[in-house]
Amino acid sequence: MRWKNWLENNILENKVLLRFFRIDEELLRIGLQGIVEHKLRSFLTMLGIIFGVAAVIAMLAIGEGARRQTLSQIRALGLNNIIIQSSDGEGKPGEKGNILFSDAEALQQILSTIDALAPVIRYETEAFYKTRSKAVKLTGTNARFFKLMNLKVEQGGLFNEWDDEHFQKVCVLGAEVARDLFLAENPLGKLVKLGRLWFRVIGVLAHQPVSTVGASEVNFNRQIFAPLQTLYVRFDRPARDSQLQQLVLHVPDENKIVATARITESVLTRRHQNQKDFKMIVPEQLLRQSAETQRLFNIVMGTIAGISLLVGGIGIMNIMLASVLERTREIGIRRSLGATRKDILSQFLLEAVLLSLIGGLAGIFTGYVLSYGITLLSDWETYVSWWSVALAVGVSAGVGIAFGFFPARKAAELNPIEALRYE
Prior knowledge:
By secondary structure, this protein is of the alpha+beta class. About 55% of the residues lie in helices and about 15% in strands. It folds into two domains: about 40-70 and about 290-420, no CATH class; about 80-250, no CATH class. The protein is elongated. The chain starts with a helix and ends with a helix. It holds the Pfam family FtsX. It is a multi-pass membrane protein.
């Protein structure tokens, strides 16, 4: 009774809605009553659509979440950057790379397509403040590095070229380092001990997404940044270590990134006696590869979810055929009272579409719950986009039309005299 009252108040009495979709009120009433009077059968019929739509929503949410996460990681590297890494510790003995300051100067003179270059050196050290300590990566670079890597300041400011040229002992903290060392205390102006030296904190970075460069993870939140020349002069380095661990080149014209990367590789290979003892990472190319991988992933996942919808559609066809057989006498009576074949076709087709749409709406809700559950239980980011919901509704309606048309046509083609005789 509750269902019938709800249908009367919200759908059957909504004349504007019926007129907009050009739906006959009587046909809609018959279709909805057919669903309500056979609740269990209708629910079991809709299960295939519910699970199919939920699978579509969940699979697309997983794919979209992975795409957004990958995009944020790659953007953290700078889409217009070319990153050159020393192969220290990654090659065979005797094949270590050695990126030199002179390499950086040569590239800056030769490459007319770059507008900024940031050299990078890194040290593994311990940071101390009062009684607290934390193992950190101490990164030495110039002032341009922060802009090239899209690093935002949350408190204070950044060091500049003057600090670098005059070997100033100032530093900028990553968000996680600032939290662990200073807790709720304001770190600006405080002194932290890095190795054997004291540095003054002049800034704190906002939280940054974790990214991947090559086979290693880059987490700027766990790093401390200081002027490159300060670290190079004041910190001891093993004799066999590369002068620089990294060079970051910025190419303002994205159409020239690939060509610049080729020239860079050629110049460095020639300067290193025809040995490629370095690695090059081009985030823009990584993004293209990621987009292609994501497209294939979505196709595979969409196909799997589509199979579930196909099974649901077959279930609807099966139930509608049984319904036609069960209601043969009703069809004969309606035809004898003046209903046309088009009326009968519309009646059963509308019922099939209603089953699909109701199942589709329930599937959307289930898909949201599944996506949230995946994020909650596996820490895998998911994102339900509006177009995936629109696709799910459209597909569920399409399934109802496609699989409901044959039973509806079969009902419309029944001979009214033979239908009246049917027991």
